Amino acid sequence: MLHLSSFFKRPALTLLSVTALAALPLASAKAQLVNTYSMVASTGTFTALPATATAPAVSGYLNDGFYNALPIGFTFKFDGVDYTTVSASTNGWLTFGQNISNSTPTNNLTSGTPRPLAAPLWDDISFIYTGTGTPTGNNGKLSYATTGTAPNRTFTVEWLDARWAPTAAGPVQSFQVQLDEGTNVLRFVYLQGTGTVSGTRSASAGLAGVAANNFLSLSDLTSAPTTSTTTENAGITSRANNNRTFTFTPGGALSTKSARSLNALAIYPNPATHSAQVVGATKGQPVQLLDLQGRVVREQAAGITTLDLSNLSAGLYLVRSGAQLGRVVVE
């Protein structure tokens, strides 16, 4: 996990929280649908949950099983609906607010059930070795924890040392789903295991909303995947590199039509290192740089067009001047 108070640290590159956008007229009911979520790929730091995390008993088998009614510890809004529990499948996905009765590995973000769900690696995977011969590495496990202090807690479900497929001689991939309180930001975080992908694999990764055909599908698990809300890729065959992180921000606040109409700030170069030029600032208004929690970390006086980015942590920031918005990636 990446940022949880006394245990973890948030990844360097992630989308700005919705809290930072709350004062701006960008949100709508439609903007809460999964197919309006924004996604950013980055490299963070995968840290396994501590020994104090809860490891529930599996229903079914460690090859095809599930874990029902895991308490989030706070209310998390997903696809516009509030939830307080999730249920997870051994096969690399979890669903919100309902129990699982079949852990089926048949990946289908487009119209499959149950819905809604988050799927960091939806395929036939296992916490134990089911092949022949002598396996290597530890058996895997699922665990969960809620850490941090209200109203900024994070709930994490972790698939540790999963074998992809069940006949993989050693653990292939560990991964986590992280849910942030208040902002409703969701992350997938990955770590490679000692084994290699076994056989012909065909995974999905992404989000599925309550209704059929409301989904967000990743093209792959690389550093620069594309996303689609119209065509699901159910053919992912390569695992994610160590510390790969995909951050999903609800509402599509920086990608909706209304947001684009307000996003009049031009920022260059972008990405930037030490400074950037801002064009289109509101006359008489300062230019503010906001961090991942919506806090103003820099402010340039009205009329000054050079934004100072020195000594900032790498990541994605919101730039605001009056009602004008922009984004800048700091390297």
Automatic annotation (TrEMBL):
Keywords: Signal
Organism expressing this protein natively: Hymenobacter psychrotolerans DSM 18569
The keyword Signal is assigned to this record: yes
Residue spans crossing the bilayer: none
Lineage: Bacteria, Pseudomonadati, Bacteroidota, Cytophagia, Cytophagales
Protein name: Por secretion system C-terminal sorting domain-containing protein
Signal peptide range: 1-22
Entry keyword annotation includes Cell inner membrane: no
UniProt xrefs under Pfam families: Por_Secre_tail
Listed InterPro entries: Secre_tail
